[in-house]
């Protein structure tokens, strides 16, 4: 909901400035969203997360490399599967 609101505000700001919001790349860095670990919990969770955010207008999703004992903590094996399998599913 927060990201959708930000995209809407960006669209309004662009309209006021006479710019096309479609000309701007919209990139989401994971780890700073309420569901920080969610997209890195499984390939399916990532694909669902990416699809939901693509529908909101995000062009790219950046996955932070897993860092133990931090907000970026995640299973490296799952991260690698997402990189190989999850990204293939969302680009089909």
- Low-pLDDT parts are none
What is the terminal separation in angstroms? 26 Å
Gyration radius (Cα, Å) is 15 Å
Helix content: 40-55%
Largest sheet: 2 strands, parallel
Shape: elongated
Overall mean pLDDT score?
Answer: 88
The share of residues in extended strands comes to 5-15%
> Structural class, from helix and strand content?
mainly alpha
Question: Which sequence of SSEs, written as H and E, runs from N to C?
Answer: HEHEH
Find the count of extended strands (DSSP E, 2+ residues): 2
Tally of individual domains:
1
Number of helices: 3
What does this structure look like?
The protein is mainly alpha-helical. It has one domain (25-90). The chain is built from three helices and two strands, in the order H-E-H-E-H. It has a two-stranded parallel ribbon with strand order 1-2. Strand 1, helix 2 and strand 2 (60-62) form a beta-alpha-beta unit. Helix 2 (43-55) packs across helix 3. The protein is elongated, with a radius of gyration of 15 Å. The mean pLDDT is 88.
Features:
two-stranded parallel sheet; 92 residues
Short description:
This protein has one domain. Helices cover 48% and strands 7% of the residues.
Topology summary:
Layout: H1 2-17, E1 27-29, H2 43-55, E2 60-62, H3 76-90
Parallel strand pairs: 1-2
Helix pairs in contact: 2-3
């Amino acid at each position: 909901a927060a990201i959708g609101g930000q995209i809407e505000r960006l669209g309004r700001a662009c309209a006021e400035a006479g710019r096309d919001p479609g000309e701007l790349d919209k990139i989401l860095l994971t780890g700073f969203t309420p569901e920080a670990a969610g997209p890195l919990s499984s390939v399916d969770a990532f694909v669902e997360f990416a699809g939901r955010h693509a529908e909101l207008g995000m062009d790219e999703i950046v996955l932070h490399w897993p860092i133990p004992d931090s907000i970026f903590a995640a299973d490296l094996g799952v991260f690698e599967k997402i990189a190989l399998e999850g990204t293939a599913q969302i680009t089909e």
